[in-house]
Amino acid sequence: ILHYGDSVRTSDDQTVFVPVRAAMLLGFSWWYYNQSGEADVLPLIGRVVQSDVDDWTSYFSNFPNEDDTARPGYPLYGGDEGRQGVDLTQAIEYPIGYYLMARDQNFKNSVSLGISYLDTYDGQVGGRWNADEYLSGIKPTQGTELCDVEELIYSLTKDFEAVGDVTFADRVEKLMFNAFPATCTADMWSHQYDQQANQVLVSVAGRPWHGDDDTSSILGFTPNFPCCLANMHLPFPTYVENMWMASNDKGLVAALYGPCEVKAKVGNNIDADITETTGYPFSDVIVFTVNLPAASAFPIYFRIPAWATSAQLTVAGTILNPSAGLVCQVSRTWQPGDVITLYLNNQVQTETRYNNAASVTWGPLDFALRIGESFTSISINEDQPLTPSFPTGVVNWQITPTTPWNYALVIDRNNPQYTVVTNVISQMPFAQIGEPVFLPGATNYTPWSQDVPMVLKMRARLVSNWGMNGA
Fold first, then answer.
1. For 127-170, what is each residue's pLDDT tens digit?
2. Would the pTM of this model clear 0.90, i.e. be above it?
3. CA angle, 462 as apex, 461 and 467 as ends, to 5°?
């Protein structure tokens, strides 16, 4: 549980982990309590973690920023005053975990308030926060560690599971479909330690990090530090295992969307089998087919994202108009073969970000300019000798642009005009044409031959005097 630099506090009868990561015990303890029902677990939670969750509003809001005047009282990075990204993204889960026992609304509210504060002072496109080791402000030249993305996905799924706040699940999808694939190669053989918004050069070079080294930008096996190598495989299984959840009234909750099948006991101990057919997140239509041995009454809940302001739900021919940002309950006697269709009716939207930049979104997806890429294999100081008996895709990639990247959109931000081009969803949907990929069973890298599932076409203008930051 302890992280480097952490400390312990001892008393006559117990050892107490002082740092915030001690509250990891909350998730483990609740799981064990739900399995066993042992009453001793709840006092244990209080004794071990109460001191770590007694002032979460301050924890999420009162710490240093790149602009020292933005967060008064803390002029330094790191140390006791700093907030490490991984600590924060894990901590987003803890107050709500403790709220389940304490039933004090302040614990639950502190998470939403903290997220709002972090979005204001460190927020970046894709749902992440700048934290190139420590929180580092709003500028898109700063970075975000891959472990922060992974831990935040996990924490927010637990928060949604506990209280059903749709904004938590919305952000999980935002991170899963944007921040996570942005920091890994499509074949999952390489990753960045830190990702940046609008990054056009992946290289070993000095960047304005707060605690990380010059290799943190490289897409590789263990750039900067190997923690992300261990964590980069967690988001996909975390997402899949939380796509469906049980409700306490013997129903099911469609929490996170994508093609899948769920089998569960519902209603009066009936075996339900629901298939979810969709191209989501590259499609805004999701079809659910309810397979039952016989008619059965139980509720199904559907998460309606906050951005889905024109969503419609058809249930056995009946049209519903659910409210965005809420969970829609459909409780009825289901017949074998009943079909539910969720139309999210996505529209392209823009968000104004740092320095009047515009980000472009469609449903849960954020879009980036398509830039030509040149991949070069390089060596870095963090390389470790590997002697496997089979071919691997272990490599460090430096990536340079081969086409202009300094374009400005020519759009009405309130009514953007665009054309959508759709392609077949491949086994590597986030790979660009020509990107080198290491396929299962391969002995070497080969260029990827298929296009991405969705392309937006919008008007833009080349701005010749835009240069690369720091160049």
1. 999 999 888 888 999 999 999 999 999 999 999 999 999 999 99
2. yes
3. 140
Strand order, beta sheet including 365-367:
348-352, 358-362, 365-367
What local confidence, expressed as pLDDT, does residue 55 receive?
A: 66
DSSP one-letter string for 69-101: TTSTT---SSTTT--BHHHHHHHTTHHHHHHHH
How many of the other CB atoms lie within 10 Å of CB of 325?
16
Bridge-partner residues for 301, per DSSP? 253, 329
Q: How far is CA 233 from CA 66, 131, 153, 238, 254, in A?
A: 31, 20, 12, 9, 23
- How sure is the predictor about 41, in pLDDT bands with cuts at 50, 70 and 90? confident
With tokens 């830039």, the residue in question is 371
> Residue 443: its pLDDT value, please?
95
10 Å CB burial of residue 36 (0-12, 13-18, 19+) is exposed
Place of tokens 């009453």: 39
Residue type at 108 in one-letter notation = K
Rg of the Cα atoms in the chain: 23
